[in-house]
Amino acid sequence: MALATPVLMIEKIMDYATEVDALTGKIRQNLELNEQYHNNAKKLEQDLSHLKDSAGLFAMGYGAKLNEVMEAQQIISRRFKDTDTINFVTNLAMTISRLDNVPLKLAAENIESVILQFKLGPEEAKAVSNQMAVAA
Q1: DSSP class of 1
Q2: How far apart are CA 63 and CA 111, in angstroms?
Q3: HSE-up of 92 (CA within 13 Å, CB side)?
Q4: Mind listing the pLDDT tens digit for each residue in 32-78?
Q5: Which terminus of the chain has a smaller tally of CB atoms within 10 A, N or C?
Q6: Model pLDDT for residues 78-95, shown as the tens digit of each residue
Q7: Contacts within 8 Å (CB) and 24+ apart, 40-43
């Protein structure tokens, strides 16, 4: 097994950073639609920083990749615009992902679908997932 060269390692790091930046941009676009961020770039930057920090904690806590967690946040931020709710539902998606052994992106998309189909709030979505876990 050949060791990675320093150049190859730097390229991989740069690719990863580019992917994280792209996901941050998508989350930014989703959040900017909320009027709480209109003419308030400082709040938007603070909330993006908070989400990125939370993604790092989730990644460490669940043993997931940062970009996967941010992808879940991006999916959830299409529906919800406040950071606490985005983190709550992302955590729910991560729990479902681990319990059901499905990719995090799929768990986030499924939660988004259920929330939209049944017009649920985040707490209601958690109650539904808890009932499904008990039934299984």
Answers
A1: -
A2: 21
A3: 27
A4: 988 889 889 999 999 999 999 999 999 999 999 999 999 999 999 99
A5: N
A6: 988 889 999 999 999 999
A7: none
Angle (CA) 116-121-126 rounded to 5° is 100
Q: Which residues of 41-57 are buried (b: 16+ CB within 10 A; e: fewer)?
A: eeebeebbeebbebbee
SS3 61: helix
Please name the residue that has the structure tokens 């950071």: 83
Report pTM.
0.85
Q: How many CB atoms lie within 10 A of CB 81?
A: 17
Q: Distance between CA atoms of 79 and 131, rounded to whole angstroms?
A: 22
Q: How big is the chain, counted in residues?
A: 136
Q: Alpha-carbon distance 15 to 126, whole Å?
A: 35
Q: For residues 47 and 2, give the distance between their C-alpha atoms in angstroms, rounded to a whole number.
A: 42
Phi first, then psi: give them for residue 26, nearest 5 degrees. Answer: -70, -40
Distance CA 125, CA 68 (A): 21
Closest CA to 90 of 46, 48, 49, 55: 55
